[in-house]
Amino acid sequence: MNTKTLAILLIGFVLLAGCAMPAAQATPTQATPTLAIVTSTFVTTATPFSLTLTPGAITPLPGETASVPPGTSSICADPQVTALIESFKTAILTSSGTLLSSTISPTRHMDVAFFRNGTVLTYDPVQAKFLFETTYEADWGAEPGSGAEKIGSFHAVVVPELVKIFNQPYTLTCNEIKHGGASYDISWPYKGEFYSVYFPGTQANGNMDWRTWVIGIEYVSGKPYIYALMQFFWEP
Predict the structure, then answer these.
(1) I want to staple 99 with a disulfide (CB 3.0 to 4.6 A). Which of 88, 91, 104, 117 is the partner?
(2) Is residue 150 scored above 50 in pLDDT?
(3) Residues near 89 by Cβ (< 8 Å), separated by ≥ 6?
(4) What is the DSSP string of 128-187?
(5) Cβ contacts of residue 222 below 8 Å, gap of 6+?
(6) Among candidates 235, 165, 159, which has minimal Cα distance to 197?
(7) Is 221 exposed, middle or buried (0-12, 13-18, 19+ CB in 10 A)?
(8) Are strands 120-123 and 51-53 parallel, antiparallel or unpaired?
(9) CB under 8 Å to 213, separation ≥6 — which residues?
């Protein structure tokens, strides 16, 4: 066999081998899911918008007086303060977020405790505008007696109890917590001044349905605002 014939045979073998080899398969690719993160400063549906403190974590701000000597109170004789409480009452009874917002401290904001030893939530004036419409369900702590967790929005949990007390005969007392019979020590955990809104209960229920809401009040640039709201009632 001459050289030319050998070369032709070798070329033929290479071509046959190329035809027999499987074609290269493309590697399948899988789309990677993309997580979209949306940041919002305030959402009125299901986004938490308040600072939650653990029970017992109420800390008075520096500069607060430990007590108010008789005759030296800055709020008890000030008609601005009673007008403030009246505005707060109107805001609750009419579900006015704008009016409620105007009563809240612009510097310290407003702590809200549905239970005396429950969770404290803090709302600033901007958030307060939406408290009658937001669906955000907060954890207010455990129910006294049953221990069941109280879950719900501000307008579903707090507002009905405020409406109830404001729609019944109540007394307004400065720097003193008026209350009925209680199985625990009733005290104001802050060092600032306050008013108590007290409903004495009914004889039909042995006055065990008494209820008190305490409203903490401070001055900002000479004007009174609410800095805290806390509820007391008979507990089993």
Answers:
(1) 91
(2) yes
(3) 166
(4) HTTTTT----EEEEEPTTT--EEEE-HHHHHHHHHHHHHTS--EEEESS------SS---
(5) none
(6) 165
(7) exposed
(8) antiparallel
(9) 161, 162, 165, 196, 197, 229, 230, 231, 232
Tally of CB atoms within 10 A around 53? 15
Spatial separation of the C-alpha atoms in residues 179 and 174, rounded to whole Å = 13
pLDDT at 72: 52
Q: Which two tokens stand for residue 129?
A: 């505008």
Q: What is the SS3 assignment for 102?
A: helix
Select from 199, 94, 208, 207 the least CA-distant residue to 144: 208
pLDDT higher at 157 or 54: 157
Check pLDDT > 50 for residue 174: yes
Closest-CA residue to 211 (of 203, 200, 220, 196) = 200
pTM for the complete prediction?
0.72
Q: Would you state the pLDDT for residue 74? A: 85
pLDDT at 223: 96
Measure the CA angle with vertex 196, ends 223 and 58; round to 5°. Answer: 75
Closest CA to 217 of 199, 198, 196, 200: 196
Q: Which residues make Cβ contacts (< 8 Å) with residue 50, sequence separation at least 6?
A: 121, 122, 123, 127, 138
Closest CA to 123 of 132, 133, 115, 131: 131
* Percentage with pLDDT > 90 across the chain: 62
